């Protein structure tokens, strides 16, 4: 079986040890499988993505010894592909426009008859306020577009994906009930930049012919969304490997704003790529590998 994996950072802050682990693990897996390693820059958010972070991450990855086998894909170049996927879902009647603010949603969820809101990978499950809004005519581009989860699941009783990561290895099944209760009508196109992480990642994993998605365990629940979108859009399902997260000394997950663990800082203090491999628990590789 061919093996193509990727590292897909967002240039919204410095890469830290967690990113280094993710990138090195994916790179090691590609090399061990005589496969292909690709880089994708996830810069759909023009407010948060910065050229300085893009340049720094390329430099950090090269310093770590990571080599990508094709020119990096940039999501900001890929808007036509995302629009085509949204058009496909709109034509199927699976999207609806939504004008709700965070406050509208919180208020609706706070109403006493609603009970405790369920939280999914994107926060509280949307209470459906805009679900009856018209879906005919041209696809609106100035409002959020949500996936009508019930309509998307008509005729689908469950989805499955193959997981090889340490926490859940095996075939993972998500039922229609899981989707309704834990995920709900997620936003697939944001009004401010016309796409979303979920839609773009699915379209681009297919465009880059990714056979194995390697990424952090924090995205495990989001994979159910991606597998469903692959099915709706007629795209192949990769195998998933959700790896452990690198935590700080208090056990907290590292975040981009956590400059203390930035790779650049370790580099400035004289760390070598082998030091970083050791710090994240990866075996050393000979310099020629
Ligand atoms: N861009 C995402 C991040 O930096 C990763 C997306 C993925 O691996 O699917 O967290």
Automatic annotation (TrEMBL):
Q: Which InterPro entries match?
A: aa-tRNA-synth_I_CS (IPR001412), Glu/Gln-tRNA-synth (IPR000924), Glu/Gln-tRNA-synth_Ib_cat-dom (IPR020058), GluQ/Sye (IPR049940), Rossmann-like_a/b/a_fold (IPR014729)
A Pfam family for this UniProt protein?
tRNA-synt_1c
Q: Which UniProt keywords apply?
A: Aminoacyl-tRNA synthetase, ATP-binding, Ligase, Metal-binding, Nucleotide-binding, Protein biosynthesis, Zinc
GO function terms (MF aspect): ATP binding; glutamate-tRNA ligase activity
Keyword hit for Kinase:
no
Q: Quick one: a GO cellular component term? A: cytosol
GO biological process: what's one of them? glutamyl-tRNA aminoacylation
Record PROSITE patterns: AA_TRNA_LIGASE_I
Q: Which residues form the Glutamyl/glutaminyl-tRNA synthetase class Ib catalytic domain?
A: 4-104, 182-282
> Could you tell me which Gene3D superfamilies the record lists for this protein?
HUPs
Decide whether keyword ATP-binding is in the record: yes
Annotated family: Belongs to the class-I aminoacyl-tRNA synthetase family.
Protein name, please?
Glutamyl-Q tRNA(Asp) synthetase
Source species of the chain:
Gemmobacter megaterium
């Amino acid at each position: 079986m061919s093996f193509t994996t990727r590292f897909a950072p967002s240039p919204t802050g410095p890469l830290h040890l967690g990113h280094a682990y993710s990138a090195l693990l994916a790179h090691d897996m590609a090399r061990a499988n005589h496969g292909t390693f690709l880089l994708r820059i996830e810069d759909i958010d023009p407010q948060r993505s910065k050229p300085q972070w893009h340049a720094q991450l390329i430099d950090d990855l090269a310093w770590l010894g990571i080599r990508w086998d094709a020119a990096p894909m940039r999501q900001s170049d890929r808007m036509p592909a995302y629009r085509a996927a949204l058009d496909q879902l709109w034509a199927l009647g699976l999207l609806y426009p939504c004008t709700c603010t965070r406050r509208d949603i919180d208020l609706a969820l706070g109403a006493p008859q609603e009970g405790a809101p369920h939280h999914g990978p994107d926060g509280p499950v949307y209470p459906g306020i805009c679900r009856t809004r018209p879906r005919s005519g041209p696809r609106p581009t100035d409002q959020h577009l949500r996936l009508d989860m019930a309509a998307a699941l008509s005729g689908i009783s469950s989805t499955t994906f193959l997981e090889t990561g340490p926490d859940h290895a095996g075939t993972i099944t998500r039922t229609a009930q899981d989707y309704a209760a834990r995920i709900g009508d997620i936003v697939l196109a944001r009004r401010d930049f016309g796409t979303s992480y979920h839609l773009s990642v699915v379209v681009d994993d297919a465009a880059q012919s990714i056979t194995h998605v390697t990424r952090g365990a924090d995205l495990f629940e989001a994979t159910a969304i991606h597998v469903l979108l692959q099915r709706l859009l007629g795209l192949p399902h990769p195998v998933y490997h959700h790896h452990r997260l690198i935590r700080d000394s208090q056990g907290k997950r590292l975040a981009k704003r956590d400059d203390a663990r930035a790779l650049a800082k370790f580099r400035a203090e004289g760390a070598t790529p082998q030091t970083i491999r050791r710090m994240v628990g990866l075996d050393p590789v000979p310099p020629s590998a």
